Automatic annotation (TrEMBL):
Organism of provenance: Streptococcus equinus ATCC 700338
Domain Major facilitator superfamily (MFS) profile residues, every copy: 39-508
The protein, known as: Di-/tripeptide transporter
Topology with respect to the bilayer: Multi-pass membrane protein
GO cellular component: plasma membrane
Amino acid sequence: MINDVRKTNLIKSKIPYIIERMDKKIEKTFFGQPKALFTLFQTELWERFSYYGMRAILIYYLYASVTAPNAGLGLPKTQAMAIVSIYGALVYLSGIIGGWFADRILGASQTIFIGGILITLGHIVLATPFGLTSLFISLFLIILGTGMLKSNISNMVGHLYAADDPRRDTGFNIFVVGINIGSLLAPIVVGTVGESINYHLGFSLAAIGMIVALFVYWFGRMKQFPELGNKPSNPLSQEEKRGLLVKLGVALVIILAAGFFVYRLNPANFVNNVINVLSWAGIVIPFIYFATMFTSNKVSSTERKQLLAYLPLFLSSIVFWLVEEQSSTVIAVWGETRSNLNPTIFGVTIHIDPSWYQLLNPLFIVILTPAFVWLWNKMGDRQPSAVSKFGLGLLLTGISYLIMAVPGILYGTHGRVSFMWLVVMFAVQMSGELLISPVGLSVSTRLAPLAFQSQMVALWFLSDSTSQAVNALITPSFNKETEVAFFGILGLICIGIGVILFLVKKPILNLMRND
């Protein structure tokens, strides 16, 4: 009887997958959540270990001198920041491909596994000492693989719950802890080995982390949710399958032609021109994608109103990620060039590897998440709405960057200052992230149209893509002369958007509740 009721609730919440609820294993709990969450939690932990481990040392590898004992590629810092930003943008932009494959061809489960294989190959290639060739092949594989894995594994978490299950937000909070444990371990392990011994050895450790993720996912899936996500929710018709190869061929020709045109335009500045083209594509494509979803005849009028409610949250998340994702570019450079890397603590002088600053983000997430989980559970139905959480999150994010402007105002921008400025900044900013990131994931799965289940989560990650595409254009302007204005302007923009969200909260909530 209980299982029949749960099946009915799943159908009402528009879950497209066939879930065999008579399987008692899926009914076991993990911190009061479905047992299957533990497998997805571990898989994402190790995938994020590989991703953030590589990212912790990537920018230093790009601009480290080719003649240094631990040699890098010797690129200018401005170009290195742009490459890291556009890489991040394409990682999340590729979520469109991953969501489409899951919804139309393979189902989420198989798409996740194939994506994991591609990521593993990418890290292995980056571990080889073949310069720019290894770099670009590696980034291509990781971009494509992460797009196939990232949005779909989050979507699988959403499908463990009915739409009105009160455990839903808490489940996503726990899932985000897995992300941040992996992110916390990565700079310590990969960062230390990569900076202190050899960058390529560090990239090898990232590959090992991804191999662990593949094993965890494969065996956990077979035991706990063998039927979940096995079938596409909106499979291709025979006619669509026949036209697919033609469309792929046309797309490939267009990409190659565009690349050739950009190269001929200015061969000496080819890399920068490609970055600019990809940046604008990363800004425009998400909005085209949203418009395509919104105008689809597969979306009902009720679902269309819910998409309208989703739009301001999507736009505000772009502003948040714009700041948050600068931890691997602007903050990474600031940490190496402006912070005291040999501080004396309680009479003992220690050395800080700049990549270690990347662990402050996940460290504060792991520390603060239990408090937020307790608070939301305690408040129950009285907790703030998703819109209010977003608004408050942006206010905190803005304050965090205003804090970063203070040392430049007080002491100038050409000396070194205490690393505690970064510690305080991350503590405030990560409080904001906990009000935005897990809530955004939860809202994305709750408001997703039936025909766009996986692709809706991919759309959420496109907010990150858009922000990093913008970062590829603006981060090269960051230097010691622009430091105060850079942090101050972005901080005030975040605060302004947060205030606007509070002002328009009521109409957004009305659209959300249009069931």
